[in-house]
Amino acid sequence: MTDSEHLDPGASQPVNIPADVARDFADTWCGVLTADIAARLNCEEVDVLADLLRALGAEQAADEWIDAHAVDDEPGDAHYQEGQTDEAWVSADAYRWSPDLACIDDEAF
User: Fold this and answer.
1) pLDDT (average), residues 54-80
2) By residue range, what is the domain housing residue 50?
């Protein structure tokens, strides 16, 4: 079974997700989990997770996943940033990334 076979053919329609489910998802997939897992994901995987978080209104969490992932990217990788350190800046929100900041509530919730 290919990855695309896991999808419902009607999935191109908008999906309504209850706010509490969206909030629980974002809360569960941020924090210490971000630092532990982001570097182990490939670029496509972290992009898809970030896209889902953004769709749920968790912009900052999405940016933090990308930044945490980028720390271990190498030259030629999609998220590589020369001089990237473990204390990456989330430029969109002007927050310094750290596992403790990953669960700051976004105003969208």
Assistant:
1) 77
2) 17-101
pLDDT digits 0-9 by tens, 12-34: 677 788 999 988 888 888 777 78
Sorted by sequence, the CB contacts under 8 Å of residue 52 that are 6+ apart come out as 25
Distance, CA of 72 to CA of 31 (rounded, Å): 18
Residue 90's DSSP bridge partners are 95
Which one-letter amino acid corresponds to residue 103?
C
Number of domains in the chain: 1
User: Encoding tokens for residue 39?
Assistant: 């570097």
Q: List the Cα angle 73/74/75 in 5-degree steps.
A: 130
Answer yes or no: is 12 within a domain. no
* Rounded CA separation 1/90 (Å): 38
What pTM did the predictor assign? 0.61
